[in-house]
Write a structure and sequence with these properties.
LRR_dom_sf, mainly beta, Leucine-rich repeat, LRR (right-handed beta-alpha superhelix), 14-stranded mixed sheet, leucine-rich repeat, Chondroadherin-like protein, LRR_TM_domain-containing, about 15% strand, 45 strands, about 725 residues, glycoprotein
Length: about 725
């Protein structure tokens, strides 16, 4: 035993010497924590035998090839909130034992074919809250052990055929809170073990029956919060489906045989739709429960057949009548046929049934020097030193990768015969001109990547023929102003990237026609002024990123009318003072506000007027103010970052101190003055003990007497630290 103890102590001592400076190493459990350490690269002195590595809240930007080759025994890796923008191909090679990988809340936009190579034992992959707009075919091809894939809250619009190929044992696929409105008919074809699919909170306008028919084993399907208006006959053919959620959609009618090909269906959730009634769902023989709560049900004679069917089939129904007035509020299961009378005949609703796009099979040859994959409908001529855009790709090509060539210009009709094309990559092609008619015929194009080119202007006619374009990436070009009116022909544009250009002003008319725009990225420009009407056309805007510009004040007047804005980034702008009601126009919707690294010296007492419980995260780190206004009504805060702010810890700051205690937030706030408190955490400073009323309430006394109830939150504080960029609120 003595020898074993000496060996163990020796190993522990060796491991301890290798522990990176900002990290904490628990050698007995083989855990390493490097939380919020401002690391910009993966430490190269992590003990080799480490099993669990927690790197949350750092600043890596890129995960390079072989980043974890020195820690081959890892089973759990957490990279949440690390500002990761790119996973290089082979980033995780060597991690054959890893079972859990969390990459949530980063800025990853694209998953490449080899990004996740080497993770043969991975069981859970969390990619929630990134900016993933596209998944290249084969990206998950090496994840044969994965059981849970979380892609919630990204920017996906389209799922190509076989996109999940290789996930043979996947049981739960989470795609909620994206912008999906196009699914390839074979998108789910390679998921034989899937049991649960979450597609709620997307933009699906019709039930994607053909794609869902491939899921023979799925038992639960979430399709709520999609603008689906009609469920057609035999629309859903899922042999094992038991639970279907179509709540909070836009349903106006359901065909009698809509679920005839889903014989195991037991529960059907149709809450909060626009249904005035339903026909007898004769095809759903196993149905046990239907929820119709929140629908404007007309309990007239037209609803009698449905009511009679409920009784015969012994189906439990939830919901109540909206009309006629005599029956308003009556539960469905309390109605008797004589009560369900008809006055004037009620015409049945006749919603327009969305037509499906015909599938065209291509038979063209692949251009010389390029590669074409018939299984993935994928063509590539990447980095071939081409001077002209090649032609002759198969007609069913969905993804075309032409990156890193030297085209210079894109002429009219450059992509003939590619009506099925969904994603077009033209990054780093020295393109200076996109000529009118360049995209003619690309009627199904959703993604267009023009990053890292030489474009300085665009005409609306350049986008003629591509009406479905939803994602346009123009980062790293030469724009000095937004191309006014260029988006007139893009009614479906959702996301516009214009980061790292030289745009100096947003003027009225610049965004004309972009009425459906949700996300606008303008970071890293030279914007010094935004005219009041510049953002007026974008009434549906949800995210506005203006970090790293030259704004001298909050563009309050330009925010008027943006009633859906939930995220505003103003970081790294030279805003020194913030006046009253700075965010009042978006106070009813704003949830995430970034005001860090601005050199901010003063925030007026009324700057946050109107903001309150809806605010979930507020970033104020690395500024110069010595106090902040009352935020006592910010009761919904989960993240508040006040690091590197030189607070003056006198009696005027006591309300802030008490408020932080009450909310149980870890905010990183330290004193900058007076001298005796400099460098101390605000919560530990003794300068407050001379303040009137210090002995009252939670902040009372130098050593306040704590009750049992008062001691419990302190435990939560210790366990509730978030490794995020800020600090998370503890939860019971």
């Amino acid at each position: 035993w003595g020898l074993l103890l000496m060996v163990a102590l020796g190993l522990e001592g060796t491991a301890a010497t290798r522990c990176p400076r900002p990290c904490v190493c628990d050698n007995l459990r083989a855990h390493v924590l490097c939380l919020n350490g401002n690391l910009t690269a993966i430490p190269d002195t992590i003990p080799q035998l480490t099993k669990k590595l927690d790197l949350r809240g750092n600043s890596f930007t890129v995960i390079p090839v072989g980043a974890f080759l020195d820690t081959p025994y890892l089973t759990h890796l957490d990279l949440q909130r690390c500002k990761v923008e790119r996973l290089e191909e082979g980033a995780f090679r060597g991690l054959g034992r890893l079972v859990y990988l969390n990459l949530a809340s980063n800025s990853i936009a694209l998953l490449y074919q080899e990004s996740l190579d080497g993770l043969s034992s991975l069981q859970q992959l969390i990619l929630e809250g990134n900016r993933i707009e596209e998944i290249q075919p084969g990206a998950f091809g090496h994840l044969g052990s994965l059981t849970v894939l979380d892609l919630r809250a990204n920017a996906l619009v389209y799922l190509p055929d076989m996109v999940f190929q290789g996930l043979q044992v996947l049981r739960w696929l989470r795609l909620s809170h994206n912008a999906l409105h196009v699914l390839g008919s074979e998108a789910f074809a390679a998921l034989p073990a899937l049991r649960r699919l979450s597609l709620d909170h997307n933009e699906l306008q019709a039930l994607p029956g053909e794609a869902l028919a491939r899921l023979d084993g799925a038992t639960r399907l979430d399709l709520g919060h999609n603008p689906i208006t009609y469920v057609a006959e035999e629309a859903l053919a899922m042999a094992s489906l038991k639970h279907l959620f179509l709540d909070h959609a836009a349903l106006q009618d359901v065909a009698p045989d809509a679920f005839a090909r889903s014989p195991q269906l037991r529960t059907l959730d149709l809450r909060e739709n626009q249904l005035r009634g339903l026909p007898p769902l004769a095809g759903a023989g196993g149905l046990a429960r239907v929820s119709l709560a929140g629908n404007p049900l007309l309990c007239s004679c037209l609803l009698r057949p449905f009511r009679d069917w409920l009784v015969r089939a012994r189906v439990q129904a939830e919901g109540s009548c909206t009309a006629p007035p005599a029956l308003r509020g009556r539960p469905l299961d309390s109605l008797r046929p004589p009560e369900m009378r008809c006055g004037r005949p009620q015409p049945p609703l006749s919603p327009t049934v969305p037509s499906e796009q015909p599938r065209v099979d291509g038979s063209g040859q692949c251009p010389r020097g390029c590669t074409c994959s018939p299984d993935f409908h994928h063509g590539s001529c990447e980095n071939r030193d081409l001077r002209e855009i090649p032609q002759g790709f198969p007609g069913d090509t969905r993804l075309l990768d032409l990156r890193r060539n030297i085209f210079g210009t894109v002429p009219p009709g450059a992509f003939p015969g590619l009506k099925e094309l969904v994603s077009l990559h033209l990054q780093s092609c020295s393109i200076g001109v996109l000529q009118p008619g360049a995209l003619l015929g690309l009627e199904n194009l959703v993604y267009l990547y023009l990053t890292d080119n030489r474009l300085s202007t665009l005409a609306a006619a350049a986008f003629k023929g591509a009406p479905r374009l939803a994602y346009l990436d123009l980062d790293h070009n030469a724009f000095t102003h937004l191309p006014a009116g260029a988006f007139q022909l893009l009614p479906n544009l959702i996301s516009l990237h214009l980061q790292h250009n030289a745009i100096g002003e947003l003027a009225e008319g610049d965004l004309a026609g972009a009425r459906g725009l949700r996300w606008l990225y303008l970071a890293g420009n030279t914007i010094g002024h935004i005219t009041p009407a510049a953002l007026a056309p974008t009434k549906m805007l949800e995210k506005l990123h203006l970090e790293g510009n030259r704004l001298m004040e909050v563009p309050t007047s330009a925010l008027r009318g943006l009633s859906a804005l939930s995220e505003l980034k103003l970081s790294r702008n030279p805003i020194k003072r913030m006046g009253d009601s700075a965010f009042l126009p978006v106070a009813s919707s704003l949830q995430h506000l970034y005001l860090d690294n601005m050199g901010l010296e003063q925030i007026s007492s009324g700057a946050f007027a109107g903001l309150g419980p809806k605010i979930r995260s507020l970033y104020l780190e690395s500024n110069k103010m010595s106090n902040i206004p009352d935020m006592s009504n910010f009761t919904g805060l989960e993240i508040l970052n006040l690091r590197d702010v030189p607070f003056h810890c006198d009696c005027q700051l006591l309300p802030l101190r008490r408020w932080i205690d009450k909310l149980n937030l870890h905010v990183g706030a330290t004193c900058g003055s007076p001298a005796e408190a400099r460098g101390l955490k605000v919560k530990l400073s003794t300068t407050f003990q001379t303040c009137p009323g210090w002995g009252r309430g939670k902040a009372g006394g130098a050593r306040p007497e704590k009750t049992k109830a008062a001691r419990k939150p302190s435990k939560k504080k210790r366990s509730g630290k978030s490794p995020a960029r800020g600090f998370k609120k503890s939860r019971a």
